[in-house]
Specification:
heterotrimer; A mainly alpha (246); B mainly alpha (69); C alpha+beta (162); A: 246 residues; mainly alpha; 9 helices; B: 69 residues; 68% helix; 0% strand; Cytochrome c-type biogenesis protein CcmE (chain C); transmembrane (chain C); metal-binding (chain C); CcmE-like_sf (chain C); CcmE (chain C)
């Protein structure tokens, strides 16, 4: 058990192991996103009430899922980094933060654009929308904190703490539509209950969700590998590797 | 299914909403992908330059190449 | 001030303002117990203030919508299947405004218990289906509105604990 953790925590081991995995992740993500997009935009039926604006669901829901999952992943990485001092956890957290912020923005933007034809407003201060906006500020805070310290270790610790504290917001986002009256409707896509739409609408959504997660894994792998090289630049194995690449 | 291309693009009056939402999403995902590639390429170039400089006589080794930057 | 201290100051200022914004937004949303709107039964029990801008929400009662032929005046009833709220509105209704569909109205509660709305927002539910399925449901004896209302009823345990 300890051996595995140490291996996983070793940047060198991770760097070489992920090399083979990475192109597969990119390939699978690209294929799923491509097929899911064409399916969702062309072949999936329009909704009987919303018409074609329903197709926004195929980017809105996966982006909102990622926005929350990335933050949880960041908080877990922060915990691992703080408790076990495993540096690679912090490298991964650094690598994934911009993606999470981007996905939060995408979820907010696509939701606002969707709200205009469906609700009759692009924004309302209900619990779901507000807690999602707070998530965006938390992401910006984590990214800014990390960059604000001259010592990398201090920045990493501060960012980890904020991620761990800020993760409180995630259940609030998730359950806001059940706990309070909101303009936002409850979830249509869950893993635990029967989907609230027929298969020909649901399957492309599933593909997009899995594709977004694949994209998350692929991007995080690539960026973590860059981060490893950056931070381990002075080690013998990175120098040897650089000569090899030449 | 859709009948014609023009009809598909217009999305039955909802074209603006659908395409702007999808467009922003695609823009961000492509941007993040390209950024990750560029980041890696530039980093490798930078690290190689530093390695070369350190391999050559260490007469004037600057501190300008902080790898964190 | 040394650059290091300056940077620290920036950090603190940024953090404090971020926290302030976050807390401020939370409080803003918390105004009315975080609930976006009052339900008709809450209003019937006198929980909502009169003559102050509030929101009320529920289902548009089937058969309750009556439009004035000469103006944009509309009257309808919002229901949570327990209490009813009569709403007067003048203006254009959103596309998704339908009988049996969820709605949030923004406006003031009048002394006589009627609600004068300045704004009507359609509240969509989480069910989606293609037009053909909706039609098939209709032909089988359900109206899509019935179907939606039934789905909402089944899915609303929170109505019971308020």
């Amino acid at each position: 058990m300890w051996g595995l953790i140490h291996k996983l925590g070793s940047p060198k081991w991770f760097y070489y192991r992920s090399a083979a995995l990475q192109p597969w992740c990119w390939g699978v993500a690209a294929a799923l996103l491509l097929v899911g997009s064409v399916w969702g935009l062309v072949f999936a039926p329009a909704d009987y009430q919303q018409g074609n604006s329903f197709r926004i669901i195929y980017v809105h829901v996966p982006a909102a899922f990622l926005a929350q999952s990335v933050f949880v992943a960041m908080a877990v990485s922060g915990l691992v980094f703080m408790v076990w001092k495993i540096k690679i956890a912090d490298m991964a957290a650094t690598a994934m933060a911009p993606l999470g912020a981007a996905m939060t923005f995408v979820a907010l933007f696509s939701g606002a654009v969707w709200g205009v034809p469906t609700w009759g407003t692009w924004w309302i201060w209900d619990a779901r929308l507000t807690s999602m906006l707070i998530l965006l500020f938390l992401y910006i805070g984590v990214i800014a904190l990390r960059g604000a310290f001259s010592r990398r270790d201090s920045g990493a610790r501060a960012a980890s703490v904020l991620a761990m504290v800020g993760v409180i917001n995630i259940p609030i986002i998730k359950y806001s539509v059940d706990w309070w009256y909101t303009l936002h409707q409850p979830a249509s896509f869950t893993l635990t209950s029967r989907p609230a739409m027929p298969v020909e609408m649901w399957l492309p959504l599933l593909m997009m969700v899995v594709g977004f997660y694949g994209f998350f894994i692929a991007l995080t792998l690539t960026r973590t590998r860059s981060e490893i090289l950056r931070r381990e630049a002075n080690t013998r194995w990175v120098r040897a590797l650089l000569e090899e690449v030449n | 299914m859709v009948a014609s291309l023009a009809e598909w693009v217009s999305m039955g009056e909802h074209g603006v909403y659908v395409w702007s939402a999808w467009g922003i999403t695609a823009l961000f995902m492509l941007g993040l992908t390209l950024h990750a590639r560029l980041e890696r390429r530039q980093l490798l170039k930078h690290l190689k330059r530093v390695a070369r400089r350190q391999a050559s006589p260490p007469q004037q080794r600057g501190h300008d190449d902080d790898p964190k930057a | 001030m040394t650059p290091k201290r300056k940077r620290k100051l920036y950090v603190i200022v940024t953090l404090v303002s971020l926290a302030a914004v976050a807390v401020g937004l939370t409080l803003y949303a918390l105004r009315a117990n975080i609930n976006l709107f009052f339900s008709p039964v809450q209003i019937a029990q006198g929980e909502a203030p009169v003559s102050r801008s509030i929101r009320a929400g529920g289902m548009v009662k089937v058969g309750s919508v009556s439009r004035d032929a000469d103006s944009l005046n509309v009257e309808f009833t919002v229901t949570d299947y327990v209490g009813d709220l009569h709403v007067d509105y003048q203006g254009i209704l959103p596309d998704l405004f339908r009988e049996g569909q969820g709605v949030v109205v923004v406006g003031e509660l009048q002394e006589d218990g009627r609600f004068r709305a300045d704004d009507v927002l359609a509240r969509h539910d989480e069910n989606y289906m293609p037009p053909e399925v909706a039609q098939a449901l209709e032909e089988a004896g359900y109206s899509p509105a019935d179907f939606q209302a039934r789905a909402a009823e089944v899915r609303q345990p929170r109505e019971d604990d308020t």
